[in-house]
Write a structure and sequence with these properties.
By secondary structure, the protein is an alpha/beta fold. 41% of the residues lie in helices and 16% in strands. It has helices spanning 16-30, 48-54, 81-86, 97-102, 107-119, 132-136, 140-151, 181-198, 201-206, 221-225, 242-253; strands at 5-9, 39-42, 61-64, 89-94, 123-128, 163-167, 208-213, 232-235. The protein is globular, with a radius of gyration of 17 Å. Bound molecules: 2-phosphoglycolic acid. The site of 2-phosphoglycolic acid has 13 residues, from strand 8.
């Protein structure tokens, strides 16, 4: 089995000081755990350089919540992958639903970002997921199939590269309405089948990792951890609380 991952997405929730304090505490708590390399912390952009220093001696991974698809140039307000790379960021979240819906990011944009992330040999986490309306109509599978196809156009993976696909049903994000673990497993298996259709079974097994996000917390992590097909979790709200986050990591990575 591929490695499992726990990704903390702090979104825009913490002040600079709070980010550094939380990062330091996580660092101390995970210092001796061999699986700490499977934990990725994604703070807001302005906290990245402080966290880069805080993590310089530990094996915790630093991730970014977004990147622009051009390396540098006249792109007001955008974020350069070159600078993320210099800050020792090794993982980048792409196409989070909050960016797809609020900032109108399209799968075409995410596809361009994904190409750049792979060019720089960084680890991409590609988010996909349906909203409530689509789920109520029972169209989630065809929706995900389309999202995957558009996002992965012309994406080829080199040796040692992998893509993490984070399935995050929008109706489950930040709502406390998480999807039952068995249903998560079924959806991840469906996504894997679609990847196998786009590439082949071997590539789907070896080059892709399938994780879940959406109201993951200490009350549901145990049931999610039971299924080996659930290869990790993307955690928002619960990653802001030290004890909850450590408990989630332990439940799924130990
Ligand atoms: P949540 O957020 O855990 O607060 O639902 C998950 C996410 O948006 O990645």
């Amino acid at each position: 089995m591929n490695n499992r991952y726990v990704i903390a997405n702090w979104k825009m929730n913490l002040s600079l000081n709070e980010s550094v304090q939380l990062a330091k505490k996580i660092n101390i708590r995970l210092m001796k755990e061999i699986w700490r390399r499977q934990v990725v912390i994604c703070p807001d952009f302005l906290s990245l350089s402080s966290l880069s220093l805080a993590f310089s001696k530990s094996k915790l991974n630093l991730g970014a919540q977004n990147v622009f698809w051009q390396e540098q140039g006249s792109y007001t307000g955008e974020v350069s992958i070159k600078n993320l790379n210099q800050l020792n960021v090794n993982t980048i979240i792409l196409g989070h639903s909050e960016r797809r819906t609020i900032l109108k990011e399209s799968s075409e944009m995410i596809n361009k970002k994904l190409k750049l992330v792979l060019k720089y040999n960084l680890n991409p986490i590609v988010c996909i997921g349906e909203n409530k309306e689509i789920r109520d109509k029972g169209r989630e599978r065809s929706f995900l199939k389309k999202q995957l196809k558009e996002t992965l156009i012309d994406i080829r993976l080199k040796k040692n590269q992998e893509i993490i696909i984070a399935y995050e049903p929008i109706w489950a994000i930040g709502t406390g309405k998480n999807m039952p673990a068995k249903e998560v497993k079924n959806m991840l298996n469906y996504i894997k089948e679609e990847i196998a259709n786009l590439y082949n079974k071997n590539i789907a097994n070896e080059k892709f990792v399938f994780i879940y996000g959406g109201s993951v917390d200490t009350s549901n992590i145990k049931s999610l951890a039971k299924y080996s097909d659930i290869q990790g979790v993307l955690v928002g709200g619960a990653s802001l609380k030290l004890n909850s986050f450590i408990k989630i990591c332990k439940n799924i990575l130990e």
